[in-house]
Amino acid sequence: MTRDIAVVAFAQTDVLRTTDELSEVEMLMPVLHSVLDRTGLKTADIGFTCSGSSDYLAGRAFSFTLALDGVGAWPPISESHVETDGAWALYEAWTKLLTGDADTALVYSYGKSSPGSLRDVLTRQLDPYYVAPLWPDSVALAALQAQALIDAGATDESALAAIGARSRQDATANPHAQLSGPVRQGDYLVRPLRTGDCPPIGDGAAAVILAAGQRARELCERPAWIRGIDHRIEAHALGVRDLTDSPSTRLAAEKAGAFERPVDTAEVHAPFSAQEVVLRRALELGDDVRVNPSGGALAANPMMAAGLVRIGEAAARIHRGASDRALAHATSGPCLQQNLVAVLEGEPR
Q1: Rounded distance, CA 320 to CA 323, Å?
Q2: How do strand 79-82 and strand 48-52 relate by DSSP bridges?
Q3: Nearest 5 degrees, angle CA 128-CA 132-CA 134?
Q4: Residues 5, 97: contact at Cβ < 8 Å?
Q5: In terms of Cα–Cα distance, which of 73, 92, 72 is closest to 81?
Q6: For 95-104, what is each residue's pLDDT tens digit?
Q7: Which residues pair with 10 in a beta bridge?
Q8: Residue 264: band (very low, low, confident or very high) from pLDDT cuts 50, 70, 90
Q9: CB 112 within 8 A of CB 203
Q10: CB neighbours of 307 closer than 8 A, spacing ≥ 6?
Q11: Which of 64, 103, 245, 323 is most buried by a 10 A CB count?
Q12: Of 209, 220, 219, which is closest to residue 71 (Cα–Cα)?
């Protein structure tokens, strides 16, 4: 890397079960105003804009173009979009800043899961020839992964329940969380997963601002410097993967420099309790690492934004001095298929 690039601001919505009264633009605009206000920047000051969302959630093609109304696309802006979680939009913006073509970037993502059946919608990301025609939904596939972990002796149902309880207890300090405090483990959705092992369905949006070099120091008292970031993908066919492991996460972490020095905080995108077990092992996170102090995806999982939120939450802890070196992880696809890892650091205090 030839330039130092940092997250200098982060904002997110409250994650709500439904936002029927709001369009995507109306949900997004307060977040964009908030993240810009934290730096004093205006839209015209942003060198590059990149967004993440999914047309499948919106139910119409090129839905992201409507969201540009919230950004303000006139005068013309340098803009791009990724059809996935906003964490990958941040990766594109990071590479753009590395080239020197821009000094600042606005990254945002959003998703409204409430209008349709999310479990059915997510089947469309599966192999279209052999798996998708069977309509296995996201919870059923996560249950296969959880059962594989239990069969391998890596966890059990009580340990999974403890992960959910800890996550939602930590979320009591997060005003944006959808679920917090004591939450019943509930009935089985798909064995061995109960409702407490699964993420809530909700609508939400998030945004971050990146800046390079001295510009980052001008915009933020303690920037969260991106010391490394990488993303990798598993084989598409679930039958050729070991669902109890995540080699793509391990490789992304290695390339991002996560194993060079210990981290004190990890925001991992684990929508299901069993996936935290897999990620802890792949990322070599010991008991001394604070995992998901925000509550993680088990407390709030806005589709297409939850991964960007993990990066934003890790950066925010560095901004306020609660962390010095943090790891952030995002995932997309069934059973941790695609994984992105970023390592963030604050300057010595």
Answers
A1: 8
A2: parallel
A3: 140
A4: yes
A5: 92
A6: 999 999 999 9
A7: 208
A8: very high
A9: yes
A10: 85, 86, 87, 88, 269, 329, 330, 331, 332, 340
A11: 323
A12: 209
